[in-house]
Design a protein that fits this description.
2 domains, 12 helices, 6-stranded parallel sheet, alpha/beta, 6-phosphogluconate dehydrogenase C-terminal fold, homodimer
Chain lengths: 287, 287
């Protein structure tokens, strides 16, 4: 199925929103792409780079007559944003998002949208440590997965349209329950980010001389903390919107750390090797 | 300064020991290289690959008449090993190691070695997630740093010899106090490994279905846990030999995690963003 939208509104023209716009430009899937967002500078850049055709002064005017609206701002802004645009959405419009949190956020958005507007919740797994529209590229989603988390209220036709868009972007679309999504991503994405932020904090707190420590960091530390360069604002929102799952995973993580710490403290070589070996085996099975 | 050793004994012919042997072969820095180690299979492989010239049945016979002895087994074996080889070391022999822990381990080794034998403690920063002699390569140390941690008992001439060997391997040699070394590496290397092992444990403990979770892991999780594939035995020993510093860093890390967890739990967006932003700024400063 090939899709074409007369008018697309992208709210939040950063790495993800900008890359999706570029895909639609490159494949001529949109008649016109309007960008909106809080940072005027980003919009100016997006215009100069040809990522969008026009910028709107506010989200409400951007969505006017739009067939497709993409929410690509930090997830913490979604509810306010949807309240703002809801009265201006045309009948038959499809709203989708690229947020890393689904679950109750999806239900909240559904409740705010008027009848006749379809919402298709999405989450492309294509983050990067760099962010901003200058990093946007039409190949960002190639080979990536995009998760769609329909609910019983989701319109199937709209689902198909959004699925076709992501397929055109080169992504493999996977369907998942919204709550399951938040469980899974708390474990494999949100926790690693929190863990990496915490690690940078711990080393920075060593105080004067910690720069010298960092000079000696090997590939492990660098790999481990690369994701810390991601947008702090975006990750703040993700953690707060998926708070219950993230807190639960931090608790589990702290238990695992305590378990290892105890084995080290007691000099329990057998236990320590067992813990490390199990972890190592699971990791090797991943590839 | 160019170095040449008539006979070199490498105890532990894995990734690091094997790579150093390959450097000496490639640059003809050794008349003969004898390998010793616990795994007969590894020694057979090392022989077949031409990494060593001969294998010895035990470390004591390997060091007989050796000018240079390299300890490249897990650090937990060093003291037993040095006790075993000490009576067989020739006068004037240089003993060096490639262990990731220095501090009190260096003092223990110094105390076990006979007069007339020089010990130069070393630590090349060149780990990899793959291990074993089949991964050994003469380019492993190129562009890497090798830390030497002399004490007041270290012979300067022997220091120069070992320094020349690492320089020939393409490494940049840095001198550091042994205790300082263990502080620094607990922070930038040992803690990240513990953190990654703990993370794999937490996800694996989610139980049945955790494989499915891992299917959705993005680049962050993969980067974060890559080091978990390192040798469990090696990391067990490192943690136990640097226990005080590692436990202290785990404590600091858990405090940072608790601090983030509290902010998420309370919905304190300001605090959370501040924590993430500080971490992000430090990371960006690193490159």
């Amino acid at each position: 199925m090939t899709v074409f939208f007369n008018k697309v509104a992208i709210i939040g023209v950063g790495l993800i929103g900008g890359s999706l716009a570029k895909v639609m430009k490159a494949q001529m899937l949109a008649g016109e792409i309007i960008g909106a967002g809080r940072r005027r500078e980003s919009l100016e850049q997006a215009l100069q780079l040809g990522v969008i055709d026009r910028s709107a002064v506010n989200p409400a005017s951007a969505v006017d007559w739009a067939d497709l609206v993409v929410l690509a701002t930090p997830v913490g802004t979604f509810e306010t944003l949807v309240r703002e645009i809801a009265p201006h959405l045309k009948k038959g419009a499809i709203v989708t998002d690229v947020g890393s949190v689904k679950g109750s956020l999806v239900k909240a958005i559904e409740a705010l949208l008027p009848a006749g507007v379809s919402f298709v919740p999405g989450h492309p797994i294509a983050g990067r440590e760099r962010h901003g529209v200058t990093e946007a590229t039409e190949v960002l989603f190639q080979g990536a997965r995009c998760i769609l988390t329909p609910t019983k209220r989701t319109d199937r036709r709209a689902m198909d349209v959004v699925q076709s868009l992501w397929t055109a972007a080169g992504a493999t679309v996977v369907e998942m329950d919204p709550d399951m999504h938040d469980h899974v991503f708390a474990a494999v994405s949100h926790l690693p980010h929190v863990a990496a932020y915490a690690m940078m904090c711990s080393v920075a707190e060593l105080g004067a001389g910690s720069e010298q420590y960092l000079n000696f960091s090997g590939a492990g530390f660098r790999d481990f903390t690369r994701i810390v360069a991601s947008s702090p604002e975006m990750w703040r929102d993700i953690c707060l919107k998926n708070a219950k799952n993230v807190v639960d995973m931090i608790d589990r993580y702290q238990s695992s750390l305590s378990c290892i710490k105890k084995a080290i403290h007691r000099g329990d070589a057998k236990k320590l090797e067992l813990l490390f070996r199990q972890a190592s085996d699971v990791r090797r099975g991943m590839q």
